[in-house]
Specification:
Layout (H helix, E strand, L loop, with lengths): L14 H13 L12 H13 L3 E5 L2 H11 L7 E5 L5 H8 L3 E5 L9 H8 L4 E5 L8 H11 L3 E4 L7 E2 L2 E2 L6 E5 L12 E5 L2 H11 L13 H5 L14 H7 L6 H19 L5 E2 L7 E2 L4 E6 L4 H13 L5 E2 L23 H7 L2 E5 L6 H23 L1
Parallel strand pairs: 2-3, 2-4, 4-5, 5-8
Antiparallel strand pairs: 1-9, 6-7, 6-11, 8-9, 10-12, 12-14, 13-14
């Protein structure tokens, strides 16, 4: 029997990163503000901003920290209402709560994207929007920006899963007021933990830099207009969400690998999607027209299956060595909105709930070979045949 591939390990960290880590260990210079200039975190911010085509970047401890700082830097009042998709990771509503704001959830469709009717209906009662491009699936950014711009509502893009994705040729994360990315291990660039926020707004980034922990005059080591910083000196709280030089030296050598990883990830995804769609019980939502995705996983919906068949499919796949996460079918999945008990009064989103009860997630690291992709596809298709025939019998 051929064993399924390990889908949990990422690509090896490049040799250049290992060399930089060793040099850093020798110096012990891990704090981003120790060096007078050209600290690894500073260089990462400059390179990432150039890569995405924006003016400013701020590297922080996580994408959640970037989202939180984005909301704080927007200057929202306490209890401001922030509209978010009902399908996202629990860190997104958590960042809203942490910023002393109130999450407002909107429906998400079977294609994992924001339901624009529900989005527009709730828009007049909010002060900001976070759009989560969940698992790299881009909502209709043209419609979203038109609606929000007309009302003067700032849009923060949660692009944790979307580094390398484009919309009408524009990089995801550059369309809204702020874009936030993740360097957690299951993302295109892997530092274990870490995040970064980008914007073209000098005043916003100055506020975020100070609140991230640029105490005293450490903000002078950031490549932003000094006038933007000067008025905020000692005016803002420090949350100390900085990235260390150690994380930055792990990330920087991976940036030149991004284009290849995006290319390989899309090829792998589309190949497996084509195989899975030979089953009448599996549907892989297509990308929207302006969207070019950068996937390192695949999501698909189970079609015309009852609950027993859904459970049998997941069990059969796991027994064959391929773990399928069905977002809504566990008591603790952090992507199922009804598990966000910290919100207190959780709204009912029937469309989103129905989708999550049939939406599946399987990792497809970009390093996988065609043979390994076939093993995964064969396993899933065999598990479907086994589940549907066994339950029917």
């Amino acid at each position: 029997m051929t064993l399924p591939p390990n889908v949990h390990d990422a690509e090896p960290i490049p040799a250049a990163a290992r060399e930089a880590i060793d040099a850093l260990m020798q110096s012990g210079d891990l704090f981003r503000y120790t060096a007078k200039e050209n600290a690894p975190v500073t260089l990462l911010e400059q390179e990432f901003a150039q890569l995405l085509g924006v003016k400013y970047a701020l590297a922080v401890s996580s994408c959640s920290a970037a989202l939180f700082l984005s909301l704080k830097a927007l200057g929202l009042p306490r209890d401001a209402r922030v509209l978010i998709p009902g399908f996202t990771f629990a860190a997104v509503p958590s960042s809203v709560v942490h910023a002393d704001c109130i999450p407002v959830l909107c429906e998400v469709g079977e294609n994992y994207r924001v339901d624009m009717v529900d989005f527009e209906a709730k828009l007049d009662d909010v002060q900001a929007v976070i759009i989560s491009h969940m698992r790299g699936h881009t909502s209709d950014m043209d419609a979203i920006m038109a609606l929000c711009d007309a009302r003067g509502i700032p849009v923060v893009e949660d692009a944790a899963h979307s580094l390398g994705t484009t919309w009408n040729g524009e990089n995801i994360g550059t369309i809204g007021k702020v874009g936030c990315f993740s360097f957690q291990s299951y993302k295109m660039i892997n530092a274990g933990e870490g995040g970064i926020m980008i914007t073209d707004d000098a005043d916003l980034i100055a506020r975020a830099v100070i609140m991230s922990g640029a105490y005293e005059h450490n903000w002078q080591k950031h490549d932003v207009l000094h006038d933007a910083f000067a008025k905020w000196q000692n005016q803002l709280p420090l949350y100390n969400l900085r990235m260390s030089n150690l994380s930055a030296v792990v990330i920087r050598p991976q940036l030149p690998e991004l284009a290849r990883r995006v290319r390989d990830g899309l090829v792998n995804h589309d190949y497996v999607a084509g195989r899975l769609e030979t089953s009448p019980f599996i549907s892989v939502p297509a990308p929207l027209g302006p969207e070019r995705r950068a996937p390192d996983s695949i999501q698909f919906n189970l079609v015309d299956l009852n609950d027993a068949q859904v459970d049998a499919f997941a069990k059969a796949a796991e027994s064959k060595g391929v773990k399928v996460q069905i977002f809504g079918r566990s008591s603790d999945n952090a992507r199922a909105f009804w598990n966000w008990q910290f919100l207190g009064d959780i709204p009912e989103l029937p469309q989103t709930r129905a989708m999550l009860m049939r939406a599946c997630d399987v990792r497809l690291p970009v390093r996988l070979t065609r043979q390994e992709l076939d093993i995964i596809a064969d396993t899933l298709l065999d598990a479907m045949c086994e589940a549907t025939s066994a339950v029917a019998a």
